[in-house]
Sequence to fold (214 residues):
Amino acid sequence: METTSPSATHEAAAEAGRKVDGYLLAAFPWYGLDEAFTGPRWLMRVGAAADGTVEHGATGHGEEPTIKVEPPQDERFAVVVTVASRPVRRSGDGTGVLEATSVSTAAWLAGSGLLAQTWPTQMDRSLRQDWLDQQTMLAWELADDLGGGSWNELMLPVDGVPTSFAYRESEYGWVLAGSANEGPEGVHIGAYGRGMSAYGLGFSVIKDLTTYAG
Fold:
């Protein structure tokens, strides 16, 4: 029978605590799947500006995806990306301007997140970076054209309110993006997944981050 050493358990708990701390620094609410989802939940990473301001982060649901030569057919997960709604603004050190965030920002982060979990089975490992660069550029172009023919509209509840999302599918999974809570605490929501249908999902504010801490 396998056992986990006390030191390993302590290190895992410390790592989970550090992840939660990063999320607690955000000045905006985090979103995840609503209570209809009853599976495992886990934290990923936050993204911060050069001055340390938390700009975005992601929460995972289902099975944590692993990069393998061929993703398991039964791999089922959905990742929700929360992006702070920001206008164009001065950088923290006053030396430049930071770009505004938008639904396209959420779509880009979701699209690139899905790519990071993908490995085409027919491709030599040495070519992966070239493929990833190409697909990343394509994901950005798609995110910059949410009104184009590559996207469909999907209505999903956000805190119980029907909300319009831009949605698309690919051979690697699905991606969607929309906005919630217009106002000072407004956020943009992106999501990506595989093995779980996006059509039955709902999103809500995470009231207790420890439910994601493992």
